[in-house]
Amino acid sequence: MKNRLFFLMLFVSVVCIAKGQNEQIKFTEYDLANGLHVILYPKDATPNVLVSMAYHVGSKNEDPNRTGFAHLFEHLLFEGSENIGRGEFDSLIQAAGGYDNAYTTQDQTYYYENVLSNELELVLWIESERLYHAKIDSIGVKTQKGVVIEEKKQRIDNQPYASFPIELSKRAFRVHPYRWQPIGDAQQVQEATFDDINNFYKTYYVPNNVVLVVAGDFDETQTKMWIDKYFGTIPRGERPFNRPDIVEPPQTVEVRDTVYDKIQLPALFMAYHGPAMGTKDAYAVNIIAQILSGGKSSRLKTNLDDKGLTLQSAVFFQETEDPGLIYLLGVANMGKDLQEIEKALNVEIDRMANELVSEEEFQMAIAAKEYETADRLQTLSGVSESLARNYLYFKDTNRINKELSYYEEITREDLQNAARKYFRPESRVVLYYLPE
Fold first, then answer.
1. Confidence label for 263 from pLDDT (cuts 50, 70 and 90)
2. Best exposed site among 92, 106, 177, 350 by fewest CB in 10 Å?
3. Using an 8 Å Cβ cutoff, are 126 and 113 in contact?
């Protein structure tokens, strides 16, 4: 009864949000002569504007002997520019009543600012400075190397279980650059030379490798004039991009290992090879993850957590431009054995491959994913990221208006086929995390 009530409430929420998205997200897009792709999304619901710059460079594009470069640049390009003093990027945005941030993935580096609408010109100027006039000197490089190395210590090395993506990926991939994570290797970051860093900047921080999105309350004609003023004269990049076309060979033998960590309770981590983002299989795997661990009535919550076997369990799919990984985890409850947890996880994986999910369970999962997608597109940040991603990876910005339909195309049979295809024992890495 509770499941039916939850499904009814979720369905009503999806209908309400999706009804709003039926009014197609309207945007304008065009290219400058230097290759900069511009996307404008006017939305005057609030008196603010969000500007984002999505650079098509992540850890995947790094030299294997210089990992961590993309992430280092995320930090380095907040240092200042030829016309902006050291450390003033943040203070200028804060003085404008806004906030800024950035993040790095395997496939992109993303910067954004949200400010009051009357400060749009300021932000466009700041981003043009980051793109073309960034101040890269020995002081900034030394400072940010230290920041990145310290961040790795705080976020990875000294946090329980936090190393699992690093440990899984380096065992799951043999040749593809997804075998290292964006945080990089501290020693390689420390050894990076000024020439290494300058070459990386001149190669990837060019107009023809970035998508500029302006979303919110702004005048489109004036904004185009400002974009041309601040970005139009920046020369096109001529250096070749490192776009790896490496195809990871199929994994044919299960990899098992033990990791000793600063933890109190043992934990099990698994990684299966998954599909590339945007594919039909990717949407199917996302629905599988929802069924397995998306909510209080999910299978892992019911059959592992609620039965006291695990304190926490989860399944999540890290969508990447090339085929990535599907993660499963279980943190053992006091006195519980990891072999018992692995057996219970395998039971749920086998069920997905050997049995069709019930219609009710399927519809609940579809509704949850549609709600999540539609809800994200109610915010400027969600729309901006989706617009940039759809152009950056697919050269099809209008995919943003088709995202809900991709889930609607999935059937229960698609879920079973995806489970059989990707959740194979010989295509996984299994790690037992034990206390040091």
1. very high
2. 350
3. yes
